[in-house]
Write a structure and sequence with these properties.
Blueprint (H helix, E strand, L loop, with lengths): L5 H30 L4 H29 L1 H21 L3 H29 L5 H21 L10 H12 L1 H6 L15 H7 L1 H27 L4 H26 L4 H21 L5 H27 L7 H30 L3 H21 L32 H7 L20
Length: 434
Amino acid sequence: MPAIAAPTLALFISVALVWTANGLCFTLLAVRMAAEGFHPSNIGLTATGYFAGQFLGALVCGRMIEQVGHVRAFAAFASLISASVIGYAIQVELVTWILLRGLHGFCIAGAIMVAESWLNGVVTNRGRGRLLASYTIIQYLAMSGGQQLLNLDSPTGFVLFTVASILFSLALLPLVLSPSVQTGAITHSALRFRELMQISPLGVVGCFAAGALVATLLGLMPVYLGERAFSVSDIAMFMSITIVGGLIVQYTIGKMSDVFDRRTVITAVLFVGALFCLLITMLPEPGFWALAGLVTIYGGITYAIYPLAVSHANDHLNPADLIAASAGLIMAMASGAALGPFGTSMLMEAVGPEGLFMFSGGICLLLGGFAAYRMTRRIAPALEDQGPYVLVSRTTTASVALDPRADAEAYAETYDTGSHGVRSPDDFHTVSAP
């Protein structure tokens, strides 16, 4: 295996530190708000604030990075995140936390955009798939590890917020001290949603729904577990297991989508996801391992929906249009992520913690029904013409240029092509980031 270049290694260390701290914050804030007696709808509002900030950051941070440079922009974003995390502990108040979560999400979008455009500058066409796989695995493992930091101290104290702040600050060092590199350009969406809907209605709707499902699972699952009387250490272990286990389940689903009609796989896994949501709501007193097993499979399904939807859309795109279309699909996903947690939290407040899986199961049923309907409206591409399931990061528009399918020349080098641009799915089988 070739050695990792110093700038890439520095970037991976920074990304690991950011996602370790961010993984800790997701669970810590939800647990702290529940301990402070906040209603589920208010906890959902703070999660919505984060993803709304991330949506806004994905729109405007690219211009900021282009104006001041990647390293200085990353330093600014990381510093603001570090300060906002300390702000959570200083002022435990709803409006303050919503505003801080919005700033946090905005700056996370900017920091990750720096990282992904940095990767664009150091990767070769033939190395894109491997680099994306490494990048995504680091994100998953870091988020999973961040959950275990909850065991260091009580979530009602100051220490865990300080730990998260320190990690965000430390993420500055590898990039600031690393050798300079040629960074890639920031990608902006060039296709309107109307055009995307005409190309692939299921792709757009699937990305929107995937954003709502993943944001709900990450933002409100700790609340569900807390109301089920799980301890903080149990919640930390549960979230770690489901994040890493979901990665494995998602990989299996992706392999299936390269063998069968992609829409059939999307429809099937969504109905299976709805079934698992039903099973979870029917469990009167779920034990730790039974619940962890069910949620791990369900989580893997939700993580897989976005890359499946993008891959389905790409089956109907020219390679030259993939970057513009994928940037638009990321924005559709971000829109769903901004809306999903609040809608779910309202239902949880009305019916109890099982409202989380009622809401999510309803989305799975609706999207599965829509996918089945779309199968009646368009003939599926021949299996040999169907593109591969490729890692697609659910982060910022800068990530889409990393897709090995995005460049026409990379296509010619990487895939065997025939009269219809037939692509072999053997080279890139991987998964997407949370």
